[in-house]
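Progress against Task 2.4 (sequence-to-structure conversion) is shown through the following example record, which the project officer requested during the mid-term review.
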Amino acid sequence: MIYRVSKPSNGVNGIVELASSKSESNRVLIIQALCKGNIKINNLSNSDDTQVLKELLQSESDELNVGAAGTTMRFSTAYLSITPGSRILTGSKRMQQRPIGLLVDALRSLGANIKYMENEGYPPLQIEGNPNLSSEVELDPTISSQFVTALLLIAPSLPNGLKIRFNGEISSRPYMNMTLKIMEYFGVQASWEGNSVTVEAQTYMSKEYTIDADWSAASYWFEMVALAESADIKLKGFKEFSLQGDAMVKDIFAGLGVKSTYEDGTITIEKIKPLFRMFGLDFIDCPDIAQTVGAVVASIGVKSTFRGLKSLIIKETDRIAALQTELGKFGVDVVDKGEGVIEIESESLTPNPDAVIETYEDHRIAMSMAPLALKLGSIDIKDPMVVTKSYPDYWNDLKLVGFNVEEL
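Structure tokens generated for the chain above:
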């Protein structure tokens, strides 16, 4: 399937009820499963990743398939490690190519019984639950904060809690901080000492929780405003103070031509004059919005250097290679300098009517490339329904603000 996305005018105006955060949703679902009381979750994400996790946590099947849901794979690996019973945990073909060895090694060092069923270091896994894991582990956190979060979420349920010693720089630290803040909301305290975090044995409290709107999803709307000639978009569903690391998108885009204001649960974003002619940023804390920002700087002629992108190569696809290939179809030079550093240089996009955007089973490629229709007139997106992984209503929301979305 291919969608052709076009925009009759270069203005963008409208009101959007934004998707709720799958990052928050998935954390709270694990806490709900571990809590001895009742936790009511409001505004749970309707994304594929969250719905798959919800189903798996309720399933009594001996084999659980996460599909393409990376967060679900990592969180479920830790959760099943302390849950009585024997389960096989598997996923899509791409999921079976995404490394999970660091998390499995950490869990094994605590006493977890996990076996690789095919390739060493990769799913599928056979997991024999053992609720009596030990209480200290050392972890390299440079690859994925989700490995850290998976351990933190189960930590208070271990007999003696858990102390995690980090032997490297923590990747995507705001995501880890979000985990600790959500755990704190449910009554679990953590303490830092040097490069270690300790969670004593505790019990999650039964409370009600409302999921915030998704700042990762909001980034595509900031992109549209940055690329439009005029814009006024209202995004509904936000708390005033977000726990999500990608909330920094409002600060990043302030220099790329987007003004944002908050009032009564709504973020209003408007077009202003861009400040930057050259742009540099370390994405170590917000890697999921790198493609979105990359599409913007390539479109408006801002020479840029991005750092902190090492984790992009183990996402749904190699996102650095994908950015090179897909932006390259429109004359953009994306240079991979190695060690998670890329340079982007382009005066503007070169129209290419024969181009079709490959999505590589990656939702963020589809959603970050579609707004380029504002600069190109139209853009064709292959396998567009990958967006259901995190933002199922994306295409309908585009239509609400005047985009044409048609199947070819």
